[in-house]
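Contributing new complexes? Match this layout with 2-acetamido-2-deoxy-beta-D-glucopyranose.
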Amino acid sequence: MANFLAGIFILLCLVNRYLSAEIPSVTTALGTITGATKRVVFQKKPYDVDRYLGIPYAKPPTGELRFKRPEPYGPFPGAYSATNFGLSCPQHLFLPVMAEEQTSEDCLFLNIYVPRQEPDQPSGHAIMFFIHGGGFTMGSGKIYDGGVLSSVGNVIVVTINYRLGLLGFLDIDNVKSSGNFGLFDQRLALQWVNENIGAFGGDKDRVTIFGESAGSISVSLQMMFPQNEGLFRSGISESGALTLPGLFLENNIEAAKYFAENMSCSVEDMDEVFSCLQSATPESIIKVVADAVASGGMAASVKVGSSPTIDGEFIKTNPADLYRKAVTGESEEINFFRTRKLMNGVNGKEGAMFLMMLGSDNLDELEITREQMNTQQIPGATAVVYGQRTVPEVVKQLLIAEYTDWENPDDPKKLREQVVRLFGDIYFNVPAIEMSRIHSNASNVDSYLYNFVPVLDKRLLPTPNWVNMSNHGDELGPVFGYNFDFEALLNISDYTPPEWELEMSERMMAYWTNFAKTGDPNKPVSDAVSSVVWPKYDITSQSYIKFDRKDSFGQYLFARETDFWKNTLSAVFDATEVPTTITSLYGSKDEQTCEKDGTCG
Ligand SMILES: *[C@@H]1O[C@H](CO)[C@@H](O)[C@H](O)[C@H]1NC(C)=O
Ligand SMILES: *[C@@H]1O[C@H](CO)[C@@H](O)[C@H](O)[C@H]1NC(C)=O
Ligand SMILES: *[C@@H]1O[C@H](CO)[C@@H](O)[C@H](O)[C@H]1NC(C)=O
Ligand SMILES: *[C@@H]1O[C@H](CO)[C@@H](O)[C@H](O)[C@H]1NC(C)=O
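Output block (do not edit by hand):
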């Protein structure tokens, strides 16, 4: 008997091993793709996930195809072995632990993670399509291992590479290089998924795009591009909205000239600049970025930064104006946006990310004086929001009043908290709330908002201890079930997060994948999410869920900050900036135009 049982046990092991060793393979219209099965573990439970890695979705954007919209890769000449990640796109990696990474201009690949469970619907698995962040200049799909999210949530996860920096976004205002290639790459990958995911057991009518930071801005841009009809039905924006001020330029001719000049090319006319950049090696392009970062820190790296531009096609008008536009007029973009389901959120202290740029070696001891606040931080913030416009003194005074703790107005430790608030508000919090308001201000929309606040055991970005809520990017660990290479990212081997974080991760993965499956984060009800029902967001109730050691829900997230920036400051700004017209005291019919300092002419 014992032998018999032992025999069955061995047999089961063999069957098991046989199953794991079986090579997963799918036949698509483009050819046969073979992958590999990997075992992942979450909360001590093992799962097998089929991975198809490094699938080319576009022709290599090299040679004549550099600075052009991507072209579909087309069919595979033979069976395609998709067992290794493709190389990342050229980028300057400033994280030392990742400096060895090899990159290539031939980088337009996607990765697919397919769970072994039966799908929740006969039509197939819901799909979660991830767009990585990194300021449109860094990052790659492979850092975000979709294995745990896919297995625990029972969805297909897709991650992608898209072109970055100058190679992804060169816009010199003419047909030679019209810009936004990186966004068109994302879109082509979505089209690939639409056409081929059925072969992997996916339901192409249930695609959700999600992304963080620049990936989140990309999500919101894709959601406002009406030609994307049919490619996805919902989007999850994690910390980044297209309403971010100051991001979108009309072109990046200035950056292009900087690159050309630095590669000893003539910048007399744009044709020459273009030929120079067209024939440069990717290494020399990245070297200009690396040199700029090394020589002048952030200020210089802004010069070499290239991000999405108002190209007149993908982006027709400045997205920073959308909030006003949504109130006053019809817009095809906004109408399309509202037909998609949106889950949107920000972390507790997004602004802590910018502390890295203050150039202090010891952020724990950082202090900000009143002088620094008034002469550097406040003007720095207004430069982002108002660009070249002259900022009236009264606006500066209002900002100082708003970003002061009036119980300890000049305490340098309170002022550093205010700097985190200020930059969190302008870059993330206010744009996010604007976006949720724009999206939800109509009937029959599905809109959800979250705020992720806990202090995690390990944060991805350098964060001082006095920052007592989540920093930018902190929600990524929980969303991906901590399936990160912590060794590569943080130089920690065998990391296991604390139990409360794993439980929170389980809840978040349930909400995220529920939303992908049904469009409602609360359905299908699972044990993990049954205790807190996530209410819909609308402009009246402004309800949101707050993720923490215990989840709860609240109302009016950053409502004060949003109204302060969008209504109060704008009104004051407009009133002081527009020259006042007054009737002449001398009874003349001529009207006088007066400047804001009171002189009339
Ligand atoms: C190239 O850039 C560096 C800083 O990144 C600058 O110091 C140098 O002058 C530039 N070279 C040319 C030829 O513009
Ligand atoms: C919502 O839309 C109405 C008109 O459709 C507009 O008057 C109102 O200002 C909008 N509210 C917000 C917060 O955008
Ligand atoms: C974080 O610190 C601020 C200011 O020091 C304090 O007002 C707030 O209650 C703290 N929040 C948490 C969640 O500890
Ligand atoms: C990683 O950690 C080990 C030991 O903890 C240390 O010796 C090594 O220098 C670290 N590597 C990097 C790149 O920081």
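Reviewers usually confirm one structural detail per submission. For this one: The chain has two domains: 6-252+306-351+426-555, 378-404+558-601.
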